[in-house]
Design goal:
The structure holds two protein chains of two kinds. By secondary structure, chain A is an alpha/beta fold. Chain A has helices spanning about 10-20, 25-30, 50-55, 70, 85-90, 125-140, 155-160, 160-165, 170-180, 205-210, 220-225, 240-245, 245-250, 295-300, 305-310, 325, 335-350, 365-370, 375-385, 390-405, 415-425; strands spanning about 30-35, 35, 45, 60-65, 75-80, 140-145, 195-200, 210-215, 220, 230, 255-260, 260-265, 270-275, 310-315. In chain A, about 40% of the residues lie in helices and about 15% in strands. The N and C termini of chain A lie far apart (about 60 Å). The relative contact order of chain A is 0.12. In chain B, the strands form two sheets. In chain B, strands 1-2-6-5-4-3-7-8-9 form a nine-stranded mixed β-sheet, with helices on both faces.
């Protein structure tokens, strides 16, 4: 619990009132006061009221009106007041306390930072990217989209939250708490039901990304993305320090921040979606198209560390659609259709005891995703020829499991889904705008 | 008549002066023998060295020392009256006043020469054509001239080196100093060309790669050749400098046709529209060469590409789904997205077939694109 900041204005004022004999110590026993005081005695809200209120459950919590709903989410006896005089009048019994605030379950939309709504049906073509998006949503596999500007990478990423299922009760509460503690996104008014979508600009600092701003160790973007999506557009433009800071949370699902004021642990389990150009000119990747010097290309690709790239189970090229190829292809599936398929496949993952297949332990893969002989031979060939590392092998098997789940296949994973996973894992040279000789 | 040791040493010293460019060098040597030019520059009395910048740079330089350094690096200094100086350059308006050579420059004498040039970001198709031309021309006794750049240039040289019989040695003209291998990954290729043929440069030892030096280099490539063949090039770029230089010298230019969708063939297809000779194989070049030089056409000793008989080609042994996928993939890189739209298969089925075809060497799989092998 935070022991600093303007939220202590009201408790200090009450303390002074008690010490000077205006209020009876008995009258404030069993009460907790949280709020900032204006010079005119008005009571103002503070960030993180939900977290404080949860810590104070059992007491009657008195907060500013703007914090009322948020504090009430904690479920205790929550009271609001407009001014210090108001609080004094009620404590001394001149005015009655109202009945505790309760909050009805909020409407089912995201609280803050939710993606611009848009339906997948609006995206023409892009079948590779759509499939990758669906696999990412189902299996919790991180996705990197590589392609020239204007190919629709952002358009696709914005539609990802729509196909993700609602947050489970625990994640919902944790996410709401993090958003409350951040305070930055305005005042919390309801529990977060839908996965948050955070798309920080590449100009942000490492602190803004992982958290720890100010003495209060505020959560950063990755904390705010807990349970939802962190979208990093122009991945190559992010400072290396910011990207490297992502590696530990990606591995552990929590972020540890240590500052001189202390350290904190914040949940940060998120789906990472990134987009970047293949090279500075944006046209790389297809032989003969790129005009960048090989030096410029490799400098651009070197900005991303190998360990970070390794986290992306899905690396796909997204090109500008060719109108001529779209003629005669029917309308594409809508968000609702895809979301239903994702939900069904997620249920199969839950039956295995994980939220999503990306969390499957390598040791249980043989049990939950045994390979058909042809599929095993295919993987073996890729490992033998050095196209796949041992670490990559597990990642490909998890991804193939997700693909099989989506297609309703049985317990054994066949060669088609393994081939698909190998294809979608892509290769590092995709980023380099490879040269062919 | 060959130049005196004094002239050769002075020429080396002049080339080696800091700030020297081919154009300035030509001005210094206009009407002066190298020995005289050096003495005038060192004395500060050379009329073309008005700002006396070279006089300052020449202070303390001993031409004999410079010449010794060049000789130690295996570099031969060529003046227009040297024995090995390429005859094609004599009388050329842009002829280099001094040429550095490693290897034997006299290989150009009495042999036809064809420049095979093109883009650095070549496609597999371009690389294959350049290599076929390099090999076929060398087997037919034609000197392949190129720039040792990435892509087409390197493929042409590599093809020339792989020729059997190697009836003509290859010649490279580079923009950097002869001790500065650029790009560095071509070191082996560079050394092989120098050992069987020659690598020429008009730049001093130690001259680094600079965008300025390559267009100047391209004019020498054009001037040395009887025909310039552009295998692949984009809408603009170095290859078009070579084409321009050739056109100014009335040297015929040929271009290899490419797919109209391929960005790497945009320049070459444009050249064909402008009336350049279409070049499909070595025979086309040899025919053009006979026209250009007069006399009996040379014959290719092999290396031209012919369709294997029906039934022997790998794509004739495909099952139904494989056939669908094969038909949806172009000869040039086709995005898998496009293949998906054309075949209407699911990504997993497509990936399965693609994997099998790539494994049999029928398809080439890149990052997000496929092409027919």
């Amino acid at each position: 619990m935070r022991k600093g900041g303007s939220g202590l204005d009201l408790p200090i004022a009450i303390g002074v009132l008690v010490a000077s004999g205006v209020l009876d110590a008995e009258a404030v026993a069993g009460h907790a006061f949280v709020g900032e005081l204006g010079l005119d005695g008005s009571l103002r809200g503070i960030p993180g009221a939900l977290v404080l209120a949860e810590a104070l459950v059992g007491l009657r919590v008195v907060v500013a009106e703007e914090n009322g709903v948020e504090a009430a989410l904690a479920g205790g006896d929550c009271q609001t007041a407009a001014t210090l005089a108001d609080v004094e009048a009620r404590c001394s019994g001149r005015l009655p306390w109202s009945s505790p605030l309760t909050v009805a379950p909020g409407p089912k939309h995201g609280l803050c930072g939710t993606a611009v709504a848009g339906d997948l049906a609006d995206v023409r073509g892009q079948r590779v990217a759509r499939r990758a998006l669906e696999l990412a949503a189902t299996g919790g596999h991180h996705l990197l989209m590589v392609g020239p500007p204007g190919a629709g990478k952002t358009l696709l990423a914005n539609r990802l939250p729509g196909i993700l299922p609602d947050l489970d009760a625990e994640t919902s509460r944790t996410a709401t708490r993090i958003h409350s503690a951040s305070g930055a996104a305005g005042v919390t008014t309801e529990l977060l039901h839908r996965p948050p979508f955070r798309a920080p600009h590449h100009g942000l600092s490492a602190v803004a990304m992982i958290g720890g701003r100010s003495a209060a160790l505020r959560p950063g973007e990755i904390g705010l993305a807990h349970g939802g999506v962190l979208f990093l557009d122009e991945l190559g433009e992010f400072p290396t320090a910011v990207l490297d800071a992502l590696r530990q949370p990606l591995e552990d699902g929590v972020v540890r921040v240590s500052r001189s004021q202390g350290s904190s642990i914040c949940p940060a389990r998120f789906l990472l979606i990134a987009a970047m150009n293949p090279c500075p000119c944006g046209e790389g990747g297809v032989p003969g198209a790129c005009r960048c010097s090989s030096g410029a290309r490799s400098r651009y690709a070197r900005r991303l560390s190998g360990p970070l790239l390794d986290r992306f189970d899905l690396t796909v090229r997204v090109d500008r659609p060719e109108p001529a190829e779209l003629v005669g292809t029917g309308p594409e599936e809508s968000t609702a259709v895809v979301a239903a398929r994702v939900a069904a496949a997620r249920k199969r993952a839950r039956d295995r005891g994980v939220r999503a297949n990306a969390e499957l332990d390598a040791s249980c893969l043989d049990d939950v995703a045994p390979l058909d002989p042809r599929a095993a031979a295919l993987l073996e060939r890729h490992v033998r020829t050095g196209r796949l590392s041992a670490r990559g092998l597990h990642r490909v098997r998890r991804l193939a499991r997700t693909a099989a789940d989506l297609d309703g296949a049985g317990r054994t994973v066949g060669p088609a889904h393994v081939a698909e996973a190998l294809f979608l894992r892509g290769s590092r040279s995709a980023l380099l705008g490879e040269e062919v000789r | 008549m060959s130049p005196s040791t004094v002239d050769l040493a002075s020429a080396a010293a002049l080339v080696d002066l800091p700030g020297m460019t081919p154009v300035r060098l030509a001005r210094l040597l206009d009407g002066f023998s190298p020995g005289l030019a050096w003495r005038a520059v060192a004395a500060g009395t050379h009329p073309a060295d008005r700002g006396r910048r070279f006089a300052v740079n020449a202070r303390g330089v001993e031409p004999v020392e410079v010449a010794r350094r060049y000789a130690a690096a295996g570099v031969q200094i060529l003046l227009p009256d040297s024995l090995g100086y390429p005859a094609a350059l004599i009388g050329d308006p842009g002829a280099p006043a001094v040429l550095c050579s490693s290897g034997d420059p006299s290989v150009l004498a009495a042999r036809p020469a064809v420049a095979v040039v093109g883009t650095r970001s070549a496609t597999r198709y371009g690389v294959r054509v350049a290599s076929d031309l390099g090999r076929g021309l060398t087997e037919a006794g034609v000197v392949v001239v190129s720039g040792l750049a990435k892509g087409i240039d390197a493929a042409a040289h590599a093809g020339a080196l792989s020729a059997t019989p190697a009836s003509a040695p290859p010649v490279a003209v580079v923009g950097t100093g002869l001790d500065v291998v650029y790009p560095n990954e071509h070191r082996l290729l560079w050394e092989q060309v120098a050992s069987v043929g020659a690598v020429l440069s008009e730049a001093a030892l130690g001259t680094p790669p600079h965008p300025r030096v390559f267009p100047a280099r391209n004019r020498i490539i054009a001037a040395l050749s009887d025909i310039v063949v552009v295998v692949e090039c984009h809408g603009r770029g170095g290859s078009l400098h070579t084409v321009e230089a050739a056109a100014r010298r009335s040297i015929p230019v040929g271009a290899v046709p490419g797919a109209v969708h391929s960005p790497a063939s945009r320049g070459t297809n444009g050249l064909l529209v402008d009336g350049c000779m279409p070049i499909r194989d070595v025979d086309d070049v040899l025919t053009a060469l006979a026209l250009a030089r007069g006399g009996a056409p040379l014959t290719a000793t092999g290396g031209t590409w012919r369709d294997p008989p029906e039934g022997d080609r790998p794509e004739h042994r495909l099952d139904r789904v494989e056939r669908i996928v094969w038909d949806a993939v172009d000869d040039v890189a086709t995005p898998v997205e496009t293949v998906l739209l054309r075949t209407n298969l699911s990504l997993s089925s497509l990936a399965d077939v693609g994997e099998a075809l790539a494994d049999r060497g029928i398809l080439v799989a890149g990052a997000g694109w496929w092409a027919r092998a």
